[in-house]
Design a protein that fits this description.
The longest helix is centred in the middle third of the chain and has 31 residues, at 81-111. The protein has one domain (2-239). The chain is mostly helical. 66% of the residues lie in helices and 2% in strands. Keywords: Membrane, Transmembrane, Transmembrane helix.
């Protein structure tokens, strides 16, 4: 029972811990802070606008990821199981959001980079990767190797995704009412019904990414199955892979 409290049977590596887990979280935070430093040293019209850079879903996701990894690092340093639980709860929101950001950004950029980048915006490749790829990568590493499996089910994940997507839509429209421009050019190109459709699709993609991340976790770490007759109460059987 003590071992179960210390570490979930399906969790691959020890976390919280002052070893590899702390190094991964520290490396992620270093990248996140560098991104914020880049914004500070390269101001643009968003700096003076209502909502600042928080008009951008990228920056909202980066902030949430930073909070998640700060709590994770504190858990590593203090070995606090309570902080570790908080980190895992934050991850249920931040990891799918970062996957959504990466999928939408790079997908739209492949079609036409001016759908996501205004004419006045110039982002070097290393900064682009730091903002739009590294957060999802390190969040994925944290989930697969340093976290217990998520227990969120389909309906709650869809509800959470919808709340985030339409909450962001409300925020974007509020910023537009003050600034007269949208953070992403694609919002300018779409009429109101089109924006509703875009945010609805985004909510569905985020919910799908939650389910995909849960499935991927199982493929990497095994799937918990109900206890078998004769096994001790609460026992968890680990399957390394699903039957094909």
């Amino acid at each position: 029972m003590a071992a179960l409290i210390e570490r979930h049977p399906l969790q691959r590596l020890p976390s919280p811990s002052r070893g590899t887990s702390a190094l991964v979280h520290l490396a992620g935070l270093a990248s996140f802070f560098w991104s914020f430093k880049f914004m500070h040293e390269n101001p643009n019209q968003a700096n003076e606008a209502y909502g600042w850079h928080f008009q951008y879903l990228t920056v909202i996701g980066l902030t949430l990821s930073t909070l998640t990894f700060l709590v994770a690092l504190l858990a590593d340093v203090t070995l606090s199981r309570r902080l570790f639980l908080v980190k895992n709860l934050l991850s249920v929101c931040s990891a799918p959001m970062e996957v959504l950001i990466s999928v939408l950004y790079w997908g739209l950029r492949l079609i036409d980079e001016r759908l996501v980048l205004p004419d006045w915006a110039v982002i070097p490749l290393h900064a682009d990767i730091s903002f739009h790829a590294i957060p999802s990568i390190v969040m994925l590493i944290d989930l697969l190797f340093f976290s217990p499996p998520w227990t969120i089910t389909a309906l709650p994940s869809l509800g959470l995704s919808g709340l985030i997507a339409f909450g962001y839509w409300f925020w974007v429209e509020r910023c537009f009412s003050y600034n007269g421009f949208y953070p992403y050019p694609i919002f300018e190109l779409l009429p109101t019904p089109g924006r509703i459709g875009l945010f609805s699709v985004s909510a569905a993609v985020m919910a799908l990414s939650t389910g995909t991340l849960k499935w991927l976790y199982g493929r990497v770490n095994g799937f918990g199955v109900p206890e078998q007759p004769g096994s001790r109460p609460g026992a968890i059987v680990k399957q390394e892979s699903l039957k094909k």
